[in-house]
Specification:
The complex is a heterotrimer of chains A (386), B (426) and C (153). Chain A has 386 residues and is of the alpha+beta class. Helix content of chain A is 46%, strand content 12%. In chain A, a hairpin with a 2-residue loop joins β2 (44-50) and β3. In chain A, α2 (77-84) runs antiparallel to α3 (92-107), α3 (92-107) runs antiparallel to α4 (113-142) and α4 (113-142) runs antiparallel to α5. Helix content of chain B is 70%, strand content 0%. Chain B has helices at 2-9, 15-18, 21-53, 69-78, 90-106, 125-146, 150-185, 192-202, 213-228, 253-278, 293-319, 328-349, 351-356, 358-380, 386-412, 414-423. The longest helix of chain B is centred in the middle third of the chain and has 36 residues, at 150-185. The termini of chain B are far apart. In chain C, 24% of the residues lie in helices and 16% in strands. Chain C is built from 5 helices and 5 strands. Chain C has a 3-stranded antiparallel β-sheet with strand order 2-3-5. In chain C, strands 1-4 form a two-stranded antiparallel sheet. The longest helix of chain C has 12 residues, at 13-24. The termini of chain C are far apart. In chain C, 21% of the residues are buried. Chains B and C meet through α3 and α14 of B and α2 of C.
Chain lengths: 386, 426, 153
Amino acid sequence: MSRRTDYLDLDNVDLNTKDKTFLDSTELVLNMGPQHPSTHGVLRVILKLDGEKVLGTECVIGYLHRGVEKIGENRTYTMFNPYVDRMDYVAAVSNGLGYCETVEKLLNVEAPARAQYIRVIMTELCRISSHQVWLGTHALDIGAITPLFYVFRDREEILKIFEKYCGARLTTHAFRIGGCIYETYDGFEQDVRNFCTAFLPKLDEYEELLTTNRIWVERTKGVGILKAEDCIALGATGPVLRASGVQWDLRKAQPYEGYQNFDFEIPTGVNGDTYDRYLVRIAEMRQSVRILQQAVEAIPAGPIMAKVPKVIKPPVGEVYHSIEAPKGELGYFIVSDGSTQPYRMRVRPPSFVNLQALDKMVRGMLVADVVAVIGTLDIVLGEVDR
Amino acid sequence: MLNAIESYLSSGVTPGEAGSQLWAAIYILVITLGVSLAVICMNWLERKILAHMQIRLGPMRVGPHGLLQPFADALKLLIKEDIIPTNADKLVFLTAPVVVTMTAFTTFLVVPFGRAHAVTDMNIGVLYMLGISSLGVLGIIMAGWASNSNYPLMGSLRSSAQMVSYEIAMGLAIVCAVLMTSLQTGTGTLSMIGIVEAQQAQGMWFIFKFFPLGFIAFVVFAIAMVAETNRAPFDLPEAESELVAGFHTEYSGFRWSLFFLAEYAAMLAVSSIAVTLWLGGWLRPFPNALSGPAWTLAFSLVPGLSFLVMAAGTFLGTIRMPKIAQMRVQMIGLGVFGALLGLVGLFLLLPGVRERVQDVYWFVAKVAVFMYLYIWYRGTFPRYRFDQLMKVGWKVLLPIGLGVLILTAVVGLRQELLAAMVGGPR
Amino acid sequence: MSLAPLLRKVFLVDLVKGMSVTFHNQSEKGRITEQYPLERPVVFERYRGQPRLNVNPDTGESLCIVCNLCALACPEQLIVVKGERNPVTKRKEVVTWTYDVSRCMFCGLCEEACSTDALELTQDYEMALFSRDGMVLDQAALEQGQEPVRYAK
C-alpha cells in the first residue's frame, strides 16, 4: 500500500475537534473507504477537502492484491493462462490475448490467420462488453439508474457467444499459446452478425438517454479535465488519452493480430473532460461493431493452432508486448530463464497507471465530482492490485 | 342513526362547514388510512414500474407478482432492532421522524377529494398546505442534528436548503394560479375548494388558461415539487453513491419507515396541490363542454370500468403464470385479488354509487398520474450535483415563476389595463 | 444560441426523449429475466461446470487409464490420482481419484489434457454446499455426480 503523503502534509492536519465544532474547520480529511458503492472495487481514496472543494487526493490500493505476478513465477506458461483472466475480470478475453501474444513473441511463433480472426472477433466483443459495463456503472454513479440494466441486458448476448464458444461467460480462458483451441461452433458467424445488427439500435438508445440529456451534460462537461501533455506525462492510455486529443491507439500504431487488415477509425476527443471520454467510448463501441462486421465475413479457413511444443520452454530472454485493452495499454513483460516457468511475469495494467491521473483531474473539483471522475477513468481494482 | 348519516351525506358540505366534529374525526380517520394505503401501493408500484422500465421484473416471490411485498417490508421494519446512537441527542432523535410524518399527514386536512370531501375548507387552504410542508423541513434538520455524525448533518442541511429554495418557486407558481381564480368574480380565493370551483365556473382547467401561461406555471410547479420532496433528479442528499449520506442514515427499523412514509405522503400532498390548482381537482374531464345526461352517464361508468379492466389484467396474469405445482398458491392468490378488483368495479357501476364516487375517483386518478411521473423521472434522469440543483432553483425557476406571474396579471387584467391606458389622464 | 437548440432547451426535448426511451422499454419484449429456481437456465454444450468422471456406457467401468496428465496439467494441483497395474489386463486401474472443487477455477486444462475423454467438465452448475466437507470429490462422487438440493417452493 502506498504511504507517500508528504505532498499532502496529511500529518499536520489538525483533526482535534474538541475546541472547534465541525463547522469551524476549513480543511477536512475525508476517507472514501474501501467499501463504497462507487469506487468500482476496493479502492480507498483519502480526500483533503476545503469545504466542498477537493485540495488533493491519495489513493490507497492493495486491498485486492492476490500476488498474481508471484503466482506467475511458479506456474508454467500454459498453466498461467487462466490466472490472467482474473486480473481485469470485466474484460477477461483481452487479458488472455495479451498474454498469449507475449508468450508467442517470446517463442517467436505466430498464430495462424484463422486463429487471428477468431481472436479479433472475441476481443472486439470483449471490448464492447467492457465498455458496456463501464457505461452502466458510470451512469449509475452519476444517478441514472436505468442504463445499467439496459447494458447488462445487451451484454447478455455477448456473454452467450462467449459461453457457446469457450464454455465460460466471464473468465473465458479462450485462447491458448499459439492460437485457439476451440474451433468456432456452428452458428458462430450468424450469432455475431445478429449481435451487430441488434446492438447498433441499442447504442442509439443509450445515447438518447444520456448524450443530449442536460443533466448528464452538466454533470460531465468540464469535469475532470486532463490535458494532453499531462496524459502523456502520467502515462495514461486508452480512452483517457484519446479523449484529450492524442491520436494513439495500439491497434493502429503497433498493429498486432492482423488489425491492419481492418478498416476502422480511432475516435478522439477535444477537451479531455468526462463528457469527451464518454463520447470516445461510445464511438469506440461503434468502431468495434464495424471491425466485427468486417471480420466475421472474412474468417479464413485453416488451422487454428500453430506448431507449439507440448511443454513450452522459451529461450532465455525477455520480452515486452502490449495490446490495446478496452481500458488502455495492457502490457506483459516476461523474463524467461529457459525453464518451463517464467523468471518474472510483470503486468502493466492500464487501470493502475490511469488511476495515477486521479489526483490531477480532481484538484479543485467538488466532492460529488470525485465519484464521476473515478467512474470515467474506468478502473478495475482486480487489475490495479493484481 | 342511518337518517343522521343520510342527512349529513346529502348535505353536500364538508364537516368543517357543517360544524360536525364527529364527521371531521371520521374523515380524518378515513384520510389517514387512505394515505397509508396509498403509500403501501406506492411502494409496490414504484418497485414494479421502475423494474419494468429497467427491463426486469421486480418483486415476484412474495405474494403473486410481489403484491405482498410492501407488507413484508413493513413487518420486517417493525421487528428490526431499534438502534439509537450513543451520543445522539435522544429527545430530538426520537421526535424528528414524528415531526416529519405528522406535518406530512396534517397537510391532508384541506385536500379536497370532492366538493364535500375535505375535512375542512379553510379560506387560506393553499397557504396552510405550504406552511405545514415547510414545517417538515424542521424535522429533517432535527434528524440530521440529532444523529451526532458529520455526514447525516451535512446531508440534512443540504436537503433543507434544497427544500427551502424550491418552495419559493412553488409559491410563485401557486400565486399565479390563485390570480387566475379572481378573474371570474373579481375576488380570488386561497381556499382549495374555491379554486376548483373557480375552474369549474370558468369552464377551463387552469393549466390551459391564458395558454401558455398556465402551462408554464404548472411546469414550474411540477419541477419544484419534485425537488421539494427530494426525489430524482434532485435526490443528491439521499443518494447512496455520493459521499455524504442522507439525513436518515442513523435511523433503523420503524423510525426509518416513518421517514419513508413521510416522503411518500409529502409526494402525495404536493401532487394534490398540483391537481387542485391546475388540473381541476375532482372535476371530470370537460364538465361544462360535454354536459348532459348521456355524457354524465358515460363518465360515471369510467371508475367501475377501470377497476374491471384492472381485474381483467389480473386474470390475464393468472392465466399466464407457469402452471406448476409450486405456483398454485400464487395463482389462487392472484385470482382472488382479481376477483376482489372485479367486485369493486361492479360495485362502482351501481347507479347509486357511481355518481357519489365520481369526485374522489377523478381526483385520485389525477394524483396517480403524478405518482407515475415521479417514478418515471426516477428511472430516467441522472441526478443533479448540489450546486447545479441550487442554480436551477434560484436562477431558472425563480425568474420564470416571476415572469409568468407578472404576465398572468397583465393578461388577466388586460381590459382594465387597456382602459386605463386609453382613457386615463393624459 | 440559434433557434433550434434554444427551442430544444426550452421545451425540454432531451428530457422527453429520455423519458420515451424508458417508457417503451416497459413492454415485455426485451425481458430475459429467468426466475430461478422455477426456471433453470440452460447452458450450452461447451460450458465448463461440475467435473465428472465418465464410465464406459456398455461395461460400466471407468474410462480413466491413470495417465496422470490431468493432475500434471492442473494449475492448482488439486487432482490426485493413484492407480496400480492390474496384472491380468495389463492396464492401470484407479485406486483413489480425488478432485478438490474448492480450489478449482474451472479453466478446463484438465479436460483438455485427458487422453481418453474420461474427465469432463459438464454443464452442471448447481454445486452449492453448506460446508467445505463435500468439496473434495472422490471417484464415486465424480462418477455419479452431485444431486443439487431442490427446494420445495
